[in-house]
Amino acid sequence: MAVPTDALQADRAALLEICAGLSGSQWGAPSGCPGWSVKDLIAHVSALFWQVVDPARLPDAAGLPTEQAQEVFVAARRALSATAVLADYEAVSSKALAVLATFAGQDFEVPLGDLGTYPAAALPTAFCFDHYVHIREDLFAPRGPLAGPPPASDALWVAPALDWIEAALPQQNRGLVNGLNGTVGIALTGPGARRISLGSGPVTARITAADATFIRCVTHRARWEDSGAELSGDERALQALRGMRVF
Question: In b/e form, how buried is each residue of 49-70, taking b as 16+ CB within 10 angstroms?
Fold first, then answer.
């Protein structure tokens, strides 16, 4: 059975290959993350790894919500050249993979601020999720500037990304989940096929979607109405789901 770091190792290799072939204009092109260039996006994933390897290498962002903290980290790296950003990613990702591998089987809890609290063994899935989304949705068209097919999205990559989403969805959307009148049943198809339940009590709404579609919608990179997902049942519950987001 593959472990999350297998997917992360594969996406690291894919990202290094992608970045090695970028032109200067592509490094400076807007990514699918509003306000961030491709270079900013790579600086962001590097900063995430530095949080595992040596947080002292990052600016002080204590007390800030996660997304604001990431803006601080990216801004601090904006003056770096593309070559320096790529070299930083290559070095820190190698170190981080070694650290994350030690989390396998560990059940002590790690608080991550507004992201929630998770068993240590789940932390590698957060990095798998981040790489999966940023590479496939924010670097490549239609949201990103790069043409051509993105890296593969089979079970090796989709499963850990969904593992993170399944753990994070109720924690990062506590108010919306607690306000559900009943349970929303989510059926996912594709290589990461699974069923997810949100809320409690009788099922009042149902969603059927391809796994990749679900990831796009729950990260607000696509609208449910435009995604091909099937939604049925209580409209209030479905509206709450539309507002939920994982990061």
Answer: bbbbbeeeebeebeeeeeeebb
Q: Whose CA is closest to 219, among 167, 179, 176, 165?
A: 165
Q: How many CB atoms lie within 10 A of CB 247?
A: 16
Which pLDDT score, from 0 to 100, does residue 211 have?
96
Structure tokens at 125: 């899935």
State how far the Cα of 227 lies from the Cα of 223, in Å rounded to an integer. 6
Architecture of the structural domain at 4-107+115-169: Up-down Bundle (1.20)
By the 8 A CB rule, do 104 and 3 touch? Answer: yes
Q: pTM for this structure? A: 0.94
Give the tens place of pLDDT for each residue, 178-218.
999 899 999 999 999 999 999 999 999 999 999 999 999 99
Q: For the domain bounded by 173-243, which CATH number is listed?
A: 3.30.1050.10
Q: Judge contact between 128 and 164, C-beta under 8 A.
A: yes
Question: CATH 1.20.120.450 occupies which residues in the chain?
Answer: 4-107+115-169
